[in-house]
User: Fold this.
Amino acid sequence: MTILRAFAVLFGLLAVSNLMKPLGFDENQGFVFMGRRLEGTPNMIAGWSFAAFLAWYAFSLWKEKASALPLGIAYGAYVAANLFLFTLRMPAPTGNQRLFGLAYTAVALGGAWGAVAAMLRAGFARRDAAPGRIVLRSFALLFALMALSNVLKPFAYTADVGFVLLGQRLAGSANTAAALVFAGFLGAYAVAIWNEKRAAVALGLAYAAYVVANLVLWNFRKPDGAEAPMVFAIPYLISAIGVSSGAAALLWKHRARFA
Assistant:
């Protein structure tokens, strides 16, 4: 068995693990999404969504398909962000918990990015001759992740979870409507990028402009006490603007080949 197939088995087992999380075998083992442990319906939606994603990733790795590389890059980015946010939002561990946390972080990051390194070493980047496709498809998967995040916002599983529209955090029916509309938008955007549809260029430019406007307006309209610590705010700004504007720039650069 090659190293790639070993990783495929690992991610297949993780898919099964995520499939089991919503079944409630252990109330302390809910799916951790963007640094928060979920329960109830959000736990089911997120757990089963990632089970499907990891099953797709495992199958692509086993068959050594070129699409496995953007899947791996997106998953590695998500794992890093999830661990970072979980560390910020949880009390500092001590003793054996701290040692377990360090070991878990090393294994999680090593597995996620080790698979990417193995694919690069095996020449996956040369299997797709279309310029920029691997990076664009990685962006597409990150936008799909954002769509999932918006699907969960109407559940308001913590007090600071609500869709932010033009700098204002929404609640109630307004939160539900805006979150689901943007989930649909981001889902359509992700599909258009993956399939290289011309609509992706317009959607990307519009979304990049919206993200910048939303961040600027939030700075003026945020409620008292909503200031995030710099260790969180700076990476968030870099990733939010970098992903949205980076995808738009790359889409514009390669727009000529989009159908």
User: Anything to note?
Assistant: The mean pLDDT is 86.
